Amino acid sequence: MRRSVAAGAVLAAVLLAGCGGGDTGGSAKPNASATTGAGQGEQGGQGKPSATGDGKPKTDPGKPAAPPLTDAQLSTALLNLADISGYMFQEWPISPRDTLKTSPAECQPIFEITIPSKTPAPKAAKGQMALSMMGPTNGSGFTVVLLSYEQSDAEKLLGNLRTALEKCTAYEGGAPARTTVKPLKAPDAGDEAVAFHLSSANAPSSYVTVVRRGSTAALFLTAPYDKKPVEPPKELIDAQVKKLG
Q: Which of 191, 203, 200, 132 has the alpha carbon at shortest distance from 162?
C-alpha cells in the first residue's frame, strides 16, 4: 500500500512539473488511508473533441457573486473518506507561481492553469491527490486543486480557457517540449467547465478538467502509472463540486 501511495505521489509531481515546468511547492504528506467500499457511480467515458457548447456558464445573472473561500474553507471543502468511497487521499501542497510565456500566446491560459499561475493570483489554494483503489480507474492518481478567486476573476479564468481551447492546438515554451492540446467534451458540473488533453514528448500525457463553482475553480489532473492515462472520473468531479456547495 505504501509503495502504491508513493508511486502515485511521485507521478502527480511529474505530471504537474511536466505541464507546468516546475515544482508545486512541497512534498505530499499522507493524511488518510484507503477505503474498502465501492466507488460511487460510474466513471465518465472518454471525452469527445468539443471546444464549444458543453460546460458554458450557467450562472444566474441576478444571483449575487459568491465571496472567495478562505484557506480554511478550502481545506474543509477538499474531499475526504466520508465524502466518497474507493479513494485514498494525500495532502498535496500548492504554491501558485509566476509563469513563462508560451508560443503562440493564445495558448497561455491552458499552460497557466496547469501550474497554477499567479495571474490572477488566487486568494487561497489547496490541493491533494486522490488515489483510486477500485473500479475501472483502480491504481490511477488524480491531482485535485481548489483555487479561490473573486468570482469575476474565476469567471474570466474559465472564459479565457474556453477561448484558448477554440484556437490553440499546440504550444512551446513553459514546458520541456512542444505540447499538443486536444479539447474534450466538458462535464456537466458546477457553473461552467472545460476539459482537454495534453501530450508532450518529454512528459506523461494528461487529462485536465477545470470546473467553476461560484468563486472557486476546481482543477483535476490525471497522473498515469502502470496503465494508459485516464480522464478524471465523473464520480470524483461530482463529489468535489457538490462539497463546494
A: 191
